[in-house]
Amino acid sequence: MNPSSSAVIQMKDLRKSFGTQKVMDGLDLEIPRGKITVIIGRSGEGKSVLLKTMIGLIFPDSGKVLIEGTDMLELSGQGQNEMRKKFGMLFQNAALFDSMNVFDNVAFPLRQHSHLEEDEIEVKVLDKLAKVGLKNVGHKMPSELSGGMRKRVGLARALMLDPEIILYDEPTTGLDPILTDSIDNLILETQKSFGLTSVIVSHDIRSTIKMADKIAMLYEGRILSEGSPESFRESKDPRIQNFLQGKADKDFIG
User: Fold this and answer.
1) How many structural domains is the chain composed of?
2) 18 inside domain
3) Per-residue pLDDT tens for 137-191?
4) The domain containing residue 127 runs over which residues?
5) pTM
6) Spatial contact of 237 and 225, defined as CB atoms under 8 Å apart
7) Residues near 107 by Cβ (< 8 Å), separated by ≥ 6?
8) Strands (E), the chain
9) In whole angstroms, what is the distance from residue 37 CA to residue 212 CA?
């Protein structure tokens, strides 16, 4: 099985359960190269599980996860670690080390996975911090930063190993509308500057419509629909329209 030439990630017939709860139930999805794909869905549908399955932090019970044609699940542990170097990930809360200052947080991946000298690391860290709009903050601790600044530091760290693919898990959670718009713009600028393939898990419809080249809606363990923002806005499916309008399905108990 070969992925289409435009797909950098292809997931086939993924199934995953936690106890009696089915999170993925025959899920198929392709992530196009060089585009922004946004995965939407109700709370508890397993969007973050799907994201972590792409990078091999969670393994499905069955199915295939092809990264540029190679099945992540068939690789050795070392092979999976090498494959993960293609990825950067911005976690929902930025996942910064509270005991490290900003500089050391961003430098961490290089110190762990490269043999660069400290002066070379310094050049790269300051460059990435500048690219995400943060200068002269390397000495600060995470506790001294606003939520938006923490997200930017997390993004700088995610970019340190020059990944081909970057995954964003709810990047604007907990931010006010102005900061949300700022992070949306940062993601778009990062996409344009670095030519990445980006996958975003989001519940924010406004951000999704603004950023997505492709939207995929997760619903009851499968992809209910995928397409452009325009196709979602024009969809006649009541489940899609209810989600876009923030209305609960009649059978949904949250």
Assistant:
1) 1
2) no
3) 999 999 999 888 888 999 999 999 889 999 999 888 888 888 889 889 989 988 8
4) 96-162
5) 0.87
6) yes
7) 121, 122, 125, 160
8) 7-18, 21-32, 36-40, 62-67, 70-71, 87-90, 165-169, 197-201, 214-219, 222-227
9) 6
